[in-house]
Amino acid sequence: MDLNQIQLALRCCGQLQAIKHAKSLHSHIVKLGLFNHVFLLNNMISVYAKCSHFEDARTLFDDMPHRNIISYTTMVSALTNSGRPQDALTLYNHMLESKTVQPNQFLYSAVLKACGVAGDVESGKLVHRRVYRARLECDTVLMNALLDMYVKCRSLADAKRVFYDMPCKNSTSWNTLILGHAKQGFVKDALDLFDQMPEPDIVSWNSIIAGLADTSSFHALQFVSMMHMKGLKLDAFTFPCALKACSLLGKLTVGRQIHCCIIKSGFECSYYCTSALIDMYSNCKLLDEAMNIFHKNSPLAESLTVWNSMLSGFVANGDWWKALSMIAHMHHSGAQFDPYTFSVALKVCIQFENLRLTSQVHGLVITSGYELDYVIGSIFIDLYVKQGNINNALRLFERLPDKDVVAWSSLIVGCARFGLDTVALSLFMDMVHLDLEIDHFVLSIVLKVSSSLALLPSGKQIHSFCLRKGYESERVITTALTDMYAKCGEIEDALTLFNCLSEVDTLSWTGIIVGCAQNGRADKAISLLHKMIESGTKPNEITIIGVLSACRHAGLVEEAWTIFKSIETKHGLTPCPEHYNCMVDIFAQTGRFKEAINLINDMPFKPDKTIWCSLLGACGTYKNRHLAKIVAEHLLATSPEDASVYIMLSNVYASLGMWDNLSRVREAVRKVSIKGAGKSWIEIFS
Asked: PANTHER family annotated for this entry (predicted)?
């Protein structure tokens, strides 16, 4: 094969996505010694990218002895299209640093697309400045790419400035700005722009309908009707947008009418129309009709879009078994899964908690080359966390080239759940430095981490972040901050925050009451309980435990007894073991053994180790030998193989001078350590 034939063959491989033939051609190029032929290798990179073999494209690019502007432009586009826009921007910056190649309008367009996909408006602005310095503002295609970047980065003010400064606008310029305003919910601005457009074409109509449909605006269907009345032909793009609007607005009747129009217009065999119909009927809870359309158009089943729509319908309606069956059917039919298919398959795995199924899907993901896709990677991290495999989650997170907010949030939650508190805080600070969007749930988690570690400086940093973002007014955040300050010993700061709450629920009241108890403010805890009741908020079991704990630390016996008696009579709650444990401990600590024993006898359940230990400790304090013997028998019957029980008994007997009992206990401890569990030691007192 000569050079022209190789180039023609490469073009065909790219168009047909014939990866095996492309790799054979690559080998042939190497054998012919054409590895220094930049033009040929650029074409080879383009073919790999078109076949979605992005790693092969990158390897070839890195191995090229010489690269030109086309090499960089092709590779930047390939990285962006593979879902790795940050890598594309890194490559562009390396090229600038090397000063070996001068950027042109085509490379700038590719880089601007990467900025838009990454949502990196700052990098986009740097490119914008370079474009103006190079005097390329008259290139309409490049300016449209700049406009699209600002729209995708949700910077409409910058987009408008670019638009109105453009010396030459075309329909793409108008459509980009109209679609951007409509998709971001600025319906009036989108409509005004549409009215200002000199000659709206079919793409303009479709753009505004698509944008309005995305925001569930009823104007979308009005525009479809206007198109029809103006005699404009509705096409395979208009119909899906109209059906999406029907789906989101719940307009089933209009959706059926559009279905009829699709049939009459001959678009029933369109992949997009079929998918949109399946989506519309599925979202309207008419799964049978959606399935009829799917089976009726079985020749379209080769389209992954149609498969995914039906799969999405099953998931949306909670029919997980049919979703699982569909995934198996797709696999057996040889359908090539895309990231969306895999994401749904993984959600099914999570739903069924099936490790074997998860492993099978994981294997498919790896062989398909999607393991490091940011959506798939995020779901895997969430799956690993739910399965308790935090190490795998951390390893995958490190390998992901692009991490979305879901991946960060899932990992922070997982680290906090499995005790990796310092890692959770470190990840949170990384999110802050990267200026990623952090939701209230993640903030509440990291505040709990700061509380558990008593890290006041970290807690204050998080508080400052909440103030900067305007989150402090949110009840869930204020409650978490209150809890953090209380657990870090700053009870006055906690009370100040609590008093700023406009609406206080049971959780907020309980948090501050428990905080006061932990900080020795029994009077304030009791006062807050009364205020809580006066406000009409019903205390729960934990609220009562908090107040009783405060009374225990302060030695407020009568107050505690009054609150204990009110659990059933005033609050309609059933006292739980923790309530009894707390009250028995209060009686015991003040030497009121008769009340303690009476309360134990009145308990509706069997006393546990905690109660007997409280009573035994008090016996040692008040030198009550008789009761100590009785409690010891109960305690050993409850926990015959608990070494900590024998240690406590040793200490109490020593304080009471009960040396015979002490020697028997020490012998028992020795035997427990030798024989282990399975032997009762009640006989040592017989």
From this structure: PENTATRICOPEPTIDE REPEAT-CONTAINING PROTEIN, TETRATRICOPEPTIDE REPEAT-LIKE SUPERFAMILY PROTEIN
Domain boundary among 20, 35, 59: 59
Rounded to whole angstroms, the Cα distance separating 629 from 626 reads: 6
Distance CA 638, CA 632 (A): 10
How many Cβ atoms are within 10 Å of 37's Cβ, its own excluded?
16
Tell whether the model's pLDDT for residue 685 goes beyond 50.
no
Q: Please name the residues in contact with 95: beta carbons below 8 A apart, sequence gap of 6 or more.
A: 72, 101, 103
Model pTM above 0.85: no
Structure tokens at 33: 């010694």
Helices 390-399 and 374-386, axial angle in degrees (round to 10) = 170
Q: DSSP of 632-682, one letter per residue?
A: HHHHHHH-TT-HHHHHHHHHHHHHHT-HHHHHHHHHHHHHHHHH-SS---G
CA geometry: angle 356, 362, 367, nearest 5 deg: 130
Residue by residue, DSSP assigns 223-248 as HHHHHHHTTPPP-TTHHHHHHHHHHH
What is the dihedral angle through the alpha carbons of 28, 34, 38, 43, rounded to the nearest 10 degrees? Answer: -20
Answer yes or no: is 474 within a domain. Answer: no
Host domain of residue 3: 1-59
Angle between helices 541-554 and 506-518 (to 10 degrees): 20
HSE, side-chain direction, 13 A CA sphere, residue 202: 10
CA–CA distance, 324 with 332 (Å, rounded to integer):
12
HSE-up (13 A, CA, CB side) for residue 650 = 13
Which among 430, 435, 433, 348 is positioned nearest to 383, based on CA atoms?
A: 348
Residue 666 inside a domain? The answer is yes
DSSP code, position 538:
P
For residues 258 and 420, give the distance between their C-alpha atoms in angstroms, rounded to a whole number.
Answer: 54
Q: Which pLDDT belongs to residue 124?
A: 95
- Which pLDDT tens digit goes with each residue over 490-520? 999 999 989 888 888 898 999 999 999 989 8
Tell me whether residue 42 is in a domain: yes
Closest CA to 80 of 145, 2, 175, 163: 145
Q: Would 247 be classed as within a structural domain?
A: no
| Domains of the chain: total | 2
E-assigned strand segments in 309-362: none
* Residue whose pair of structure tokens reads 């008419």 in the numeric block: 286
Residues whose CB falls within 8 Å of the CB of residue 625, separated by 6 or more in sequence, listed in order: 619, 656, 658
Q: How far apart are CA 143 and CA 151, in angstroms?
A: 12
Cβ 344 vs Cβ 323: under 8 Å: yes
Q: In one letter, which amino acid is 676?
A: G
pLDDT at 679 over 70: no
Domain boundary among 34, 59, 84: 59
Contacts 24+ apart (CB under 8 A), 235-239: 235/202, 235/206, 235/267, 236/267, 236/270, 236/272, 236/273, 237/206, 237/210, 237/272, 238/202, 238/205, 238/206, 238/209, 239/265, 239/267, 239/270, 239/272, 239/273, 239/276
pLDDT tens by residue, 458-493: 889 889 888 888 877 788 888 888 988 988 889 999
pLDDT tens-place string over residues 220-235: 898 888 888 888 888 8
Q: How many CA atoms lie within 13 A of 41 on its CB side?
A: 25
